[in-house]
Design goal:
By secondary structure, the chain is an alpha/beta fold. The protein is 37% helix and 13% strand. Helix 11 (299-313) packs across helix 12. Residues 44-347 form the Tryptophan synthase beta chain-like PALP domain.
């Protein structure tokens, strides 16, 4: 019998020895109950229920209350911890994953970190495939959790060597392996139904708008459905980075972006320095989203916002979190003063040191920050 780890080990080992089989793989859910409100039972019990913080400078400059879920305080450092736990939990409950088995995924990095952490906590192995232009910090973190990383060149999703397709093949070729499939696995959006519940509880139901970017679409789908189920008048805004087609899908019903036009598509695409959001295909999770309107964001706005938050709030955030805050400002301007706008700080800046927070890299890209003070003129 392979070695397992975690507080559910004894019960599970006994069950397996007795022939109970894979259906008891979900025992960890019932044997890791919180001891009390002050003591958490293991790293997985730290996921979710993140603080909702007021971003004072943005609130004062816009006249709205701009609030953000501090998702970088999840134990794996990002909002993707919620998704990884939900995907693995459902697979265990349904008998599609057994202890010690392999979990694979294709990702720009953050989901890989979270899956590697969850796999380590539950005694599984993990193999992540990611594009070679993603920040190297993420690959290093994944490997630190004991997972393997394969970096491949960025290609279209229809190419067999796209990270998602490589990860899918690896799972198919490995008996008992689970392909997490974060883009199409609706456990993703279901994880964020709880995120929406938290937002509603933490605001006391006083929330007028939610703003988020979309990569897999799980966050904006789950939160939008959760909030609109409680108040259909809550407005949901998408913020979309360069090179993504989702803005036009929301605004015009057509998946199109200038960078995808004939004669514009690059062989090895590079459209934005913002990692983790933006996509040129519809996913099952995004199809669940209830979105009222959309904004475009630029790399310049994201870079300036990241420095703005450092300068005025001491908040060190990643690229998608910075873009979300750009979207929150745009939403506040549309709604007018006196409204409550909520967004997510997806991850922290520590996993973006080699690119998004690298002065030399930004200079090479012509994106060195220029703004100073508390003004928001850089948000167009």
């Amino acid at each position: 019998m392979p070695r397992y780890s975690g507080p559910w080990t004894a019960a599970l080992a006994l069950a397996l020895a007795a022939g109970a089989g894979a259906t008891l793989c979900c025992l960890y859910l019932t044997t890791t109950k919180r001891i009390n409100n002050e003591i958490r039972n293991g790293v997985l019990d730290l996921i979710g229920n993140t603080p909702l913080i007021r971003i004072a400078s943005l609130s004062e400059e816009t006249g709205c209350e701009i609030l953000a879920k501090a998702e970088m305080l999840n134990p794996g450092g990002s909002v993707k911890d919620r998704v990884a736990l939900q995907i693995v939990t459902e697979a265990l409950q349904e008998g599609r994953l057994r202890p010690g088995a392999l979990i694979t995924e294709g990702t720009a990095g953050s989901t890989g970190v979270s899956l590697a952490m969850v796999a380590a906590a539950l005694g599984c192995s993990c193999a992540i495939t990611m594009p070679d232009d993603a920040a190297v910090e993420k690959a290093n973190m994944i490997q630190a959790y004991g997972a393997t990383v394969e970096r491949v060149r960025p290609v279209s999703i229809v190419h067999p060597d796209h990270p998602v397709n490589v990860a899918r093949r690896r799972a198919t070729d490995t008996p008992g392996a689970l392909f997490a499939d974060q883009f199409e696995n609706e456990a993703n959006y279901r994880a964020h139904l709880k995120t929406g519940e938290e937002v509603w509880r933490q605001t006391g139901g006083r929330v007028h708008a939610f703003v988020s970017g979309a990569g897999t679409g799980g966050t904006i789908a789950g939160v939008s459905r959760s909030l609109k189920a409680r108040n259909p008048r809550v407005r949901v805004f998408l913020i979309d980075p360069p090179g993504s087609s989702l803005f036009n899908k929301v605004k015009r019903g057509v998946m199109y972006t200038f960078e995808e036009a004939e004669g514009k598509r690059l062989r090895n695409p590079f459209d934005t320095i913002t990692e983790g959001i933006g996509i040129n295909r519809l996913t099952a999770n995004f199809g669940r989203a209830l979105i009222d309107d959309a904004f475009r964001g630029t790399d310049r706005e994201a870079v300036e916002m990241a420095q703005y938050l450092l300068r005025n709030e001491g908040l060190w955030v990643g690229s998608s979190a910075a873009m979300n805050c750009v979207g929150a400002v745009k939403a506040a301007r549309v709604l007018g003063p006196g409204h409550v706008v909520v967004t997510l700080l997806c991850d922290g800046g520590h996993r973006h040191l080699s690119k998004f927070h690298n002065p030399e890299y930004l200079a090479e890209m012509g994106l060195s920050p220029l703004s100073q003070g508390r003004g928001l003129a850089f948000v167009k």
